[in-house]
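About this split. The held-out portion is used to measure sequence recovery: a designer receives only the structure tokens and must propose an amino acid at every position. Recovery is the fraction of positions where the proposal matches the reference. Here is one held-out target exactly as it appears in the evaluation file.
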């Protein structure tokens, strides 16, 4: 009886969980768009731009989306080598599956589970450590760029004044961001010694488990370099969309605004990245209002980034989850 019950549970998870995840994702996207008061105007503006003379910029956005996730795949491949080698296609599927599950889990914790699905059975738990390393590297770049962005925010001429341009706020934010970046850098470049201490404690307490090591400096430097290139891709995407929607911002202004916004998004906890669309819009308006009062354009840019960088990959990931089994039939 127990064997039959376990088999039925596995069949239920294998063949029902995937379709339910995909349907829930579609429903959540539709609900979040409907809740936003200006989503129709933003979509209309995007559609008008997509059929204009500068439509190539929108196509370039989709190309950069592929570059973005390919870079994340390379980064995870390199970080995962101490656990197991993995091919690019398989790793790419793991990244998209993780993006899908992360779309409806708090603070993207589902990303770890999604990537585990494509790791060999004996290495699934061990794959968490390389994923954490990748997240730390991207956060380190976000904080470092955010520190530079906040500094530029304090010296660039503003067309309009907001709470974000207050000298007290900017100085406080720069100090906090700088200290956080230095602290995270110490953790990142001392990753192996920290892991060794954890393994020593686990061995002392007779835990039958060890965390993979061998994250030497070349590996850490390569992962960090890829994270930097990926961050530059994000900036380029924002610049293209601002230009596409007729907002004449310079590259320096785009970098400054986006880097500050990314720091805010990194430190403010969200239930899911689907439900943070409203926060993206609010933060984008408040930050970029110092450069332009084109609120509709700012909303359109935020919505475009959200759809292209997060929702489309998550939907593709949901289709991939349909094709795999979460449990074996044994």
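Reference sequence for scoring:
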């Amino acid at each position: 009886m127990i064997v039959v019950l376990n088999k039925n549970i596995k069949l239920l998870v294998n063949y029902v969980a995937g379709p339910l995840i995909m349907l829930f994702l579609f429903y959540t996207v539709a609900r979040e768009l409907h809740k936003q008061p200006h989503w129709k105007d933003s979509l209309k503006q995007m559609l008008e731009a997509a059929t204009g003379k500068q439509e190539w910029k929108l196509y370039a956005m989709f190309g950069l989306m592929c570059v973005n996730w390919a870079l994340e795949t390379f980064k995870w491949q390199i970080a995962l080598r101490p656990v197991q080698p993995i091919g690019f296609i398989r790793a790419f599927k793991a990244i998209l599956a993780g993006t899908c599950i992360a779309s409806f889990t708090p603070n993207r914790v589902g990303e770890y589970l999604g990537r585990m699905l494509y790791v060999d059975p004996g290495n699934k738990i061990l794959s968490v450590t390389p994923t954490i390393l990748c997240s730390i590297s991207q956060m380190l770049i976000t904080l470092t760029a955010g520190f530079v962005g906040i500094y530029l925010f304090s010296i660039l001429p503003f067309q309009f004044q907001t709470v974000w341009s207050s000298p007290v706020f900017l100085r406080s934010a720069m100090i906090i961001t700088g200290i956080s970046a230095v602290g995270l850098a110490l953790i990142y470049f001392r990753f192996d010694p920290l892991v060794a201490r954890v393994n020593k404690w686990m061995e002392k307490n007779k835990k039958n488990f060890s965390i993979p090591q061998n994250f030497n400096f070349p590996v850490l430097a390569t992962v960090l370099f890829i994270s930097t290139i990926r961050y530059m891709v994000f900036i380029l995407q924002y610049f293209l969309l601002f230009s596409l929607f007729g907002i004449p911002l310079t590259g320096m202004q785009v970098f400054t605004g986006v880097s500050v916004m990314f720091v805010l998004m990194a430190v403010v906890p969200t239930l899911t990245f689907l439900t943070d669309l409203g926060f993206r819009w609010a933060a984008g308006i408040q930050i970029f209002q110092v450069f332009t009062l084109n609120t509709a354009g700012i909303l359109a840019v935020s919505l475009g980034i959200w759809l292209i960088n997060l929702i489309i990959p998550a939907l593709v990931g949901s289709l991939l989850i349909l094709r795999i089994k979460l449990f074996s039939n044994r």
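Annotator remark: Residues 2-322 form one domain.
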